[in-house]
Amino acid sequence: MSLVCLLLLLAANLAAQGATANPASIVHAFPSNGTAATATAATATVSVSGSGPAQLAAATQSGGNWLSVTPSTGTLPLTPTVTMDPSGLPDGTYLGAITIGSASVPVTITVGNPGPRLPANGIVNAASYQGNAISPGEIVALFGTSIGPQVPYGTQVWDGVVTTRLAATRVWFGTTLAPLIYAYANQVAAVVPYSVAGTTTVQVQVENLVARTPPISVAVQVATPGLFTADASGKGQLAALNQDTSPNSPSNPAALGSIIVLFATGAGVMNPAVADGTLVTSTQLPAPVLPTQVSIGGQNAQVLYAGAAPTLIAGVIQINARIPASIATGNVPVVWTIGNTTSPSGCTVSVH
Question: Total domain count for the chain?
């Protein structure tokens, strides 16, 4: 569910391709464990649609090997079992993920009651799900403990501007409040204020029910490009539109030489400058200050437009590019370069 509200805001009606998982994320709370040698593990099942063989794997970002999934291989559709074992973990928040074929399911567990907490690695690009740095105007996902309301809240707009409060949740970048895309208990999506431009680090805090998380220091870069994918996993089929505005997919590929529309974030400063939280109009379309390049199928593509996406929140970038006529067909790789920074590999569009 990590990008449901954002994808609704994009209003592109893009259907997920390949493997999709339900639930899309897993959150579980354990009572205080201290450093006990044993604790009661919890399990959850995930229903994964799709077809064909799939590899299954578990990975943790913190806390060691507390997460596992069975079986390790299978044929889709599949209902694997996820096991979360907090044995020996001190009170805190722990992040991990399960991958089943092309589907990725974030897993968050809390041990004890640490209160609102935002771990040092809890901020990632909302398109690529990769982190370590942020950029002005980037849409980010924040993963933590008790950082949002128990009931999910989606985007709210007041006088044409996306609000900086959802329920009792706010996100601070330094002294500036960020526009919020959605908020729920352990995950919040926000737009990095453009005021971070020119800085090297910024202190980030999340406020929930007037209590703030301890500040974490996050590096600031001029750009942190990420391309939105159809299943919100950060990899695989992109959330792209064909020239006729229909969703690109293996069953609806784009023609060689045609135009394809991509959606992205992390382009950095825009020209003309745009206010935080603005819903972009078609009368003024800011463009990234940094130059844009797109590679499709290993060849440079002609970029016809790269700038703010009309009707969407400032921070969403729309890229219209012409697919090279001489590339191979099938699911071909797409890479976006903004300035000197390139989006993560592993993203594709379908071409025939």
Answer: 3
